[in-house]
Amino acid sequence: MRRTFGTKVQKIKVVVMAVSLTLFLLAPAFGGETGMGKVPVPGMVTMVDLGAKKCIPCKMMAPILEELEKEYKDRAAIVFIDVWENPAAGSRFGIRVIPTQIFYDTEGREVKRNEGFLDKASIVGELQKLGVR
């Protein structure tokens, strides 16, 4: 005896709900949204640091990122994404190791990628190459 799940309308409703829930849960990874907004930030030079709050090199970078976020407020976007809390971001950005820093120009094009710890002077240098003063 063959069992059916229900009418075609019921099946379609279940599929639509499942897809909607999946898109809602994965939106940060595929839609470019994080808890902080779009990444890269439209029309602004953006540096994204992908790491984890509990990773040692990432912890070493945290105060640098905080300083840069204040120093470059309204001139460049400095964004941190914890890939352990948001694992889909690792796939979206093609992360192999943490921390990884990705620099984007004002058009949203990736122009530089660094894997591992990056000191403040190097970050400032990259931002300056992208025209941020």
Number of extended strands: 6
CATH topology group: Glutaredoxin
Helix proportion: 40-55%
Counted up, domains total 1
Distance N to C terminus: 73 Å
Task: Tell me the number of helical segments per DSSP (H or I, 4 or more residues long).
Answer: 4
Main-sheet strand order equals: 4-3-5-6
Mean pLDDT: 82
Percentage of β-strand residues: 15-25%
Order of helices and strands: HEEEHEHEEH
CATH top level is Alpha Beta
CATH superfamily: Glutaredoxin
Query: What's the overall geometry?
Result: globular
Rg calculated over all Cα atoms: 19 Å
Low-confidence stretches: 14-34
Question: Major beta sheet, specifics?
Answer: 4 strands, mixed
Category by helix and strand content: alpha+beta
CATH architecture: 3-Layer(aba) Sandwich
Question: Can you offer a commentary on this structure?
Answer:
By secondary structure, this protein is of the alpha+beta class. The protein has a single domain, classed as 3-Layer(aba) Sandwich (Glutaredoxin), CATH 3.40.30.10. The chain contains four helices and six strands, in the order H-E-E-E-H-E-H-E-E-H. The chain has helices spanning 8-30, 56-71, 87-93, 120-129, and strands at residues 33-34, 37-38, 46-51, 77-82, 100-104, 110-115. Helix 1 (8-30) crosses helix 3 (87-93). The longest helix is centred in the N-terminal third of the chain and has 23 residues, at 8-30. The model is unreliable at 14-34 (pLDDT under 50).
